[in-house]
Amino acid sequence: MKNFVYKVIIKNSISSFDDKILAYLYQPIIGMRSVNLYKLLIHEAEILKDLKTAEFKEERILTLCDLKHDKMSKWIKRLEAMGLIETLYNQEKNSVIYNIYAPLEPKAFFENELFNNALMKKIDEKNYEIARFIFRDEGDFSQTSGYNNTSSKFFEVFAELSENSEIKFTKGLKPKPKRSSPLLKGFNFENLMVQLEREQIIITNNIDSLKEELQNVYCAYSVSQDEILKALKAAYDGQTYKISKNKFYNYISEVYFGDEAFQTTVDVFDPKQNMIEQTNIKLKELETIEPVDYLQGLLRINKLNDDMILLIKKLSSEYKLRHGVINCLMDFSYFKNDEKIVANYLYKIAKTFQDKSIKTAKEAMEYLKAANQKSKKPKNTVNSFDFINDDSWSKTVKKKTYEVETKADAKLDESLWGDN
Fold it and tell me: Going by fewer Cβ within 10 Å, which terminus of the chain is more open, N or C?
């Protein structure tokens, strides 16, 4: 769309405190130009409110910001992805409405896995900790400080309202909310739970965690609530009454990426084909699971410590490794170092990957498989993979980080990781 007419509507109350949130939490992710465009549109909304008959066209924004159409489109998309702007387009009128939303409260931002991880990748550890410090909770004074709460309650002050008070509900104008998210429009967790219960699917997973997980998926990918419902049903285990996280993400990845990318079924069992099949399953797991979630599943813990978070961040920001490659490395360390994640060990391999421009989980797996085979040569043989000195990674095919469903008669070929 080009040369369109636009209107701007402020959907939330936006305060000066939001400027601080934008500067320290959003700007590192979306860039200063996107933030400036966001602020300009807020001012445009005020002007359009006064100039009721004015017609503003795209050219106005391009002129005010001194930019080209493609750049503006790029910055708008960044704002959309972070839930700051919602764009509505009427093709017949070639008209756009920009709905402007307030940024998340700092607490909600840091609890949002997508946004928090994005911030960690964009700034170094020191600046990330400073950002958390800026928006820290000051807490309450303890009673030992000598201060006691002497504040009054409502009916202590307005006693006349406590007697014969009749509650009346009116259907007046809807007040403007302080915070809301366009990214979650169309998502209704309670409705999902009701639909599952109707089909006698009772879930025993932590509901709050499940809700947060589903919200992240809905915000991150172009999948509908109906597809999420289908994914939940496909991932449900009637024996444990739980949702299998791996099966859920496998279903979502097939919807989002297309199921041709990871073809894993054969009509007749074939050992060679099964090795390819197992490799594809592993690659899907590595490529589609966030490193934080992957490492938690690998170590079977609910929360990573600061050192583990720093490791993932450094592999991503300093060595520029993608999630699939990071997961592959952590898998490797786990089975080569007695179920330990050794940071310096991984940094050494990460440097090799960086030098060799290894970008995907498949490339990383092939390189490490070759390294694993090379390490079995006699000691007097020249070994270019000097960070590997045993064959313990062969255990990786036997370790379940997340459950993966395969054919009942399928047997795992250890040559998947180069063990013949």
Answer: C
